[in-house]
Fold:
Amino acid sequence: MFPSDYEKHGFEIVHVGLNTGDGTEAQAVAALLKNLFGFRFTEGRDSIFSGERLELMKTPSPGTHGHIAVAVNDIHRAIAFLEASGFELDHHAVKYNAEGELILIYLKQEIAGFAFHLLQKQKASSK
Structure:
């Protein structure tokens, strides 16, 4: 049996980003989630990760409520697949790694108040 087009791309939800008002609110939410569920948090420049899959944004990110990150095997092939399926991606809302490779791109469509972005899965290093 051949994998479906979706399976080939390896679409996988890897985290949910919640918009908070500012860094102070993000810290308060992280503390609450730690008290409630024991989620440890890691503070970064733009956000705080609560546990492994919940990102608390210090400033609003795209999406009314936040964003959902969907990791893919090959971001360029996933973009081509989604665009051929009629979906629009925002080629201005992107991020590149230090080597200049595309690693993140947002869809233009918001779904249930959330923006969605594709995220390139880390490739195994060749040694």
Remarks:
- The longest strand covers residues 12-19.
- The CA atoms of residues 30 and 36 lie 10 Å apart.
- The mean pLDDT is 92.
